[in-house]
Automatic annotation (TrEMBL):
This is Putative hydrolase. Residues 121-202 form the Polymerase/histidinol phosphatase N-terminal domain. NCBIfam families: PRK07945.1. It holds the Pfam family HHH_8. GO terms for cellular component: cytosol. Residues 1-22 are annotated as: Disordered. Keywords: Hydrolase. InterPro entries: DNA_pol_lamdba_lyase_dom_sf (IPR027421), HHH_MUS81 (IPR010996), PHP_dom (IPR004013), PHP_phosphatase (IPR050243), Pol/His_phosphatase_N (IPR003141), Pol/histidinol_Pase-like (IPR016195), PolX_PHP (IPR047967), UCP036978_PHPhdr (IPR017078). GO terms for molecular function: phosphoric ester hydrolase activity; zinc ion binding. Residues 1-15 have a biased composition (Basic and acidic residues).
């Protein structure tokens, strides 16, 4: 029996299960990653992430002892299915659930592989400080595992209350946490960058104080309200936001939803040529939002932005660690649209990116 991935050469087998030497925490995290990547509902994933967090502080010996004594499910956060995973991993066997998910986990996209390989990071991600499902450090660890050199943490701004948008005070606290995470990861070559997905207000202003915006590395500005605004007003609103001196990326420009649990909705109406010309004028990147339910901008607009001469940012907009892998979808679309990789800002080095975003 052969084994996918990097869990060993599969040479040793016990009771027919391929060998696994990653340990129980890695097995649980990998299962969660693969479920998130496959767009499973968060509640299914939570058990695995919760179980990993529950056993991590106990240490390998205590976990092995609990397996030996049959007391695993007595540990808060461990249920029957997560216990099975832990037991197999402690015995050095690949957990069945993990083996099945690895078998099912093919590439997310067929095209765009060269572009994906050229990406060095991701400019749009959420943690559990706003509406994401995982702590900041888990997003950072997973970004490192994916080979990113940087990840911009872009939690929501205050007005988006349904998503627990961050007040200026909470954002200031978050920046201290980002510093602490980077200190902890010192020497890894990876950097968690400070960012925001700031709401574009009705008049085109940005929903965060100038002082806080100035403290960030990268700012993504997005429309999340009044998406059905009249075309002229929406154009003025977006052009104003793009012209804000702190704006770096125009997030999911139409706001459309094409599939998924939140239902579908048409995109906002605006003069796309005027908005994209403003992006060129103000050196703002048009986001290619990789979320499968967004696919934003639509192909017609993506090609218009290409012809107008825009920069692009291919972003995951991940709300869970496994969703950081969604970049593959955006790369496939960008390549199909014939977009030159050097016009994609996240193919740039961190230095070049930061120079551009704060120039
Ligand atoms: Zn958004
Ligand atoms: Zn977002």
């Amino acid at each position: 029996m052969s084994q996918r991935g990097d869990g060993g050469d599969g040479g040793r087998e016990t009771d027919g299960s391929p060998a696994y030497d990653g340990g129980p925490v890695a097995a649980l995290r990998r299962i969660a990653f693969l479920l998130e990547r496959a767009r499973e509902d968060t509640y299914k994933v939570k058990a695995y992430r919760g179980a990993a967090a529950a056993i991590l502080p106990l240490g390998a010996e205590a976990v092995a002892a609990a397996v030996e004594d049959g007391t695993l499910t007595g540990i808060p956060g461990i249920g029957a299915s997560t216990a099975k995973v832990i037991e197999a991993a402690v015995r050095g066997e690949t957990p069945d659930r993990l083996a099945r998910l690895e078998r099912e986990a093919g590439p997310l996209a067929t095209g765009g592989r060269e572009l994906r390989a050229a990406l060095r990071g991701d400019l749009h991600s959420h943690s559990d400080w706003s509406d994401g499902g995982s702590p900041i450090e888990e997003m950072a660890f997973t970004a490192i595992e994916l080979g990113h050199e940087y990840l911009v943490l872009t939690d929501h701004s205050p007005r988006l209350k349904v998503a627990h948008g961050l007040s200026a005070e909470r954002l200031a606290r978050q920046l201290d946490v980002v510093d602490a995470v980077n200190d902890h990861l010192g020497g890894s070559g990876f950097a968690l960058l400070k960012g925001i997905e700031v709401d574009i207000l009705d008049d085109g202003g940005l929903d965060q104080s100038e002082e806080m915006l100035a403290r960030l590395d990268v700012r993504v500005a997005s429309v999340h309200s009044k998406l059905a605004m009249a075309k002229d007003a929406m154009t003025r609103r977006m052009v104003a936001a793009v012209g804000h001196p702190r704006t770096n990326v125009l997030g999911h420009c139409t706001g459309r939803l094409v599939t998924g649990g939140r239902g579908t909705r048409p995109g906002s109406e605006f003069d796309a040529r005027a908005v994209f010309e403003a992006c060129v004028e103000h050196d703002v990147a048009v986001e290619i939002n990789s979320r499968p339910e967004r696919r934003d901008p639509p192909t017609r607009l993506l090609e218009l932005a290409r012809d107008v001469g825009c920069l692009f940012s291919i972003d995951s907009d991940a709300h869970a660690p496994g969703q950081l892998d969604f970049l593959a979808y955006g790369c496939e679309r960008a390549e199909a649209a014939g977009i030159d990789p050097d016009r994609v800002v996240n193919t740039w080095s961190r230095e070049r990116l930061l120079g551009w975003a704060n120039g």
